[in-house]
Amino acid sequence: MRNLATGNYTSKVSVQSGYEKSSTGRKKEGDVWEERGKQWTIKDGIKQTITKLDSAREHARIPMECPKCQARMNKEQHKFMYIRFKHCLFCQMNHEDEMRQNGTYDTWEKEQISKNWERWMLDSKEEFKEFLKSRHSKKQITEAGDIEDWSGGQSDEEMIKQFEKYIETEKEKFNKVTG
What we know:
Elements: H1 2-6, E1 32-35, E2 38-43, E3 46-50, H2 54-60, H3 76-85, H4 89-102, H5 105-135, E4 139-141, E5 147-149, H6 156-178
Antiparallel strand pairs: 1-2, 2-3, 4-5
Helix pairs in contact: 5-6
């Protein structure tokens, strides 16, 4: 109103009450600060929040190009190879060809098969333990809301014996394949 009364129609009022913006200067690439209860940073020129899952997200990220040969990794086979070996399918084929020429491929292949077998064994045993734990809840609720009683059947000891027998037969099969 003061500006209207004095005839300074385009002038702005320099005195302000209420909200005061705290200015800490312009943020640069890589700066980290806290605002509104969150941590923030500037990455690639974009303001982003920092979360607990950033490291997991970075670990699971698959690049557009192979880090070794810069080939495009737009097929599922390349993505699978990147997850296992951190390079594309072409690089893995070249690596395996080099191992065949050096004579080290057979030992590498046996090591990979053994690692896969050991992982399968650990996973199977864990799943079986979880099954035994969940088996003792005698009643199950279906999707329709009906309560079914699943008590009875084999004892835990019988099931453990059957599982151990199954594992032994699988070990025998594995030993036949690997020699």
